[in-house]
Design goal:
Glycerol-3-phosphate (1)-acyltransferase; globular
């Protein structure tokens, strides 16, 4: 019954608006600290093709990590849940590219390449929309090989949080919190390594970043 209710466009818009309000409350009542911001600043100054990547479990609060002049486009599933998220992030000036399905995979790929060529930044959850959790997919590695784009991993940690019982253990955060956002080291496809070696090195950078962020003290 609930799934049918959430399929309606009006319901999705209302749900997105409520989520946006909750996120704003969490942000405005909390303290934020950003680490290694020079990583993204240097790339934007050099006008590189930039893809910002973060795990699906931390998707929503990432909207507050983007405070730069470049336009940010987020790849989000065209599924019901994706549409709700798309409505939510739209209230923060972030536009979305509908993708992550077989039907519009080619269309979304064209849009991503077009946005990168315009020097707009594209946000991707490399384990979305259905997992496996926190595992890089071949498509992301193929994308940076094809476009010569650079990936900048991004994550955050929060003092007060709960992991939901979802496939990705989605991170639920609360107001009056303390957040630390951490930018990872830029990653380029290295033609001196095999495809699988590039994928492994990118996976290792994500794992390093997650471990580092979890070890941060408040």
């Amino acid at each position: 019954m609930l799934k049918q209710f959430l399929k309606h466009e009006l319901t999705q818009k209302v749900a997105g608006l409520l989520i946006a309000y909750y996120l704003k409350i969490c942000f405005q009542t909390s303290a934020w600290n950003i680490k290694n911001e020079k990583a993204i600043n240097n790339l934007l100054k050099k006008k590189k093709k930039v893809i910002v990547c973060f795990w699906h479990s931390k998707l929503l609060m990432m909207v507050f990590c983007w405070n730069y002049p470049n336009k940010f486009k987020m790849l989000i599933s065209g599924h019901r849940d994706g549409k709700i998220i798309s409505n939510a992030v739209s209230h923060f000036g972030i536009e979305t590219i509908s993708g992550s399905s077989r039907k519009n995979m080619i269309s979304s790929l064209k849009q991503i390449i077009s946005q990168l060529n315009q020097k707009n930044v594209v946000g991707i959850t490399p384990d979305g929309p259905r997992g496996p959790k926190e595992q890089i997919k071949d498509g992301l590695v193929s994308l940076i090989k094809k476009t010569d784009a650079v990936i900048v991993p991004l994550t955050y940690c929060a003092r007060f949080k709960v992991e939901l019982n979802t496939w990705d253990n989605f991170l639920m955060v609360f107001p009056f919190n303390k957040f630390v956002a951490v930018w990872g080291d830029p990653f380029y496809y290295n033609s001196n390594y095999t495809f699988e070696e590039n994928k492994k090195k990118l996976q290792e950078e994500f794992e390093r970043l997650e471990k580092f962020s979890k070890n941060l003290s408040y």
